Amino acid sequence: MKVMRWLSVCLVVLLSGCIFDDGTYKVGETVPSLRTKTLSDVGGDLTRITTYRYPDKRMYQHSLDDALAKNKVILLAFATPGHCTQCDKHLQMLKAALNKYEDDVLFLHMDQYQNPEAFKAFIVIGDPWTFIIDGNQTIRLKRAGRMLLREVDIVLAGLIKENIAQKTQTQENALTESPSQALSLLEEKLEQKLEQPLEQPLEQKAG
Question: What pLDDT band is residue 178 in, cutting at 50, 70 and 90?
Fold first, then answer.
């Protein structure tokens, strides 16, 4: 009787997406860099890179190693709609997030049938899984199962602000360490200011 109950539970888990937390790659750890399949690798044929019925080409433009090298915020989704009942709706939500954050965040979708090496590298068992990675290649969020748009929204908005602040601080530090570079930047800004047309006098505007 216990065996049958255990098998029933396993069947429910499998049908709902088969999610197990293996305990690897926790928040705060650096993600592995590896080459993953992109849309150009399959000649633009979306059926060879995802089992999702309504794929968005923007999710398959970058290999993971190339994306990490850009030092941008990354949303990495492991989802296989071909066998996962939750993955379809999860990817639909991510498309909405992509429309909002396309300029600041790289979205990558890994399908177990088409990018199995990514599942192996991250030791991901089951799906969907969502990893949000900052510009320093560090995991800032790891979540099993479907997520709500507002949950993704909060994390991405915060990381984008953090990333901008870090870049600004890096530039300021560089200018502090290099006075000549700081002077050059000031001269450039002054030249741009001088090149701007002067505002016309009020009597000329009226005439």
Answer: low
80-90 b/e (C-beta count within 10 Å ≥ 16 → b): bbeebebbbeb
Q: Is 61 exposed, middle or buried (CB count within 10 Å of its CB: 0-12, 13-18, 19+)?
A: middle
Distance CA 81, CA 59 (A): 15
Q: Look up tokens 């433009």; give the residue.
A: 61
Letter for the amino acid at 111?
D
Distance spanning both ends of the chain, measured CA to CA = 96
Torsions phi, psi of 185, nearest 5? -65, -40
Please tell me the distance from the alpha carbon of residue 130 to that of residue 90, in angstroms, as a whole number. Answer: 10
* pLDDT of 90 over the 80 cut: yes
Task: Answer whether 128's CB lies under 8 Å from 90's CB.
Answer: yes
Is 17 in a helix, a strand, or coil?
coil
Helix 87-101 / helix 149-177 crossing angle, nearest 10 deg: 40
5: left (phi over 0), alpha (psi -120 to 50) or beta: alpha
The whole-model pTM stands at 0.73
Helix (H) or strand (E) holding 119: helix 116-121
Alpha carbon 169 to its chain centroid, in Å, reads: 23
- Beta-bridged to residue 129, according to DSSP, are 78, 144
Give the whole-angstrom CA distance, residue 182 versus residue 117: 46
3-state secondary structure of 51: coil
Tell me the domains of the chain and their CATH numbers.
Answer: 17-167 (3.40.30.10)
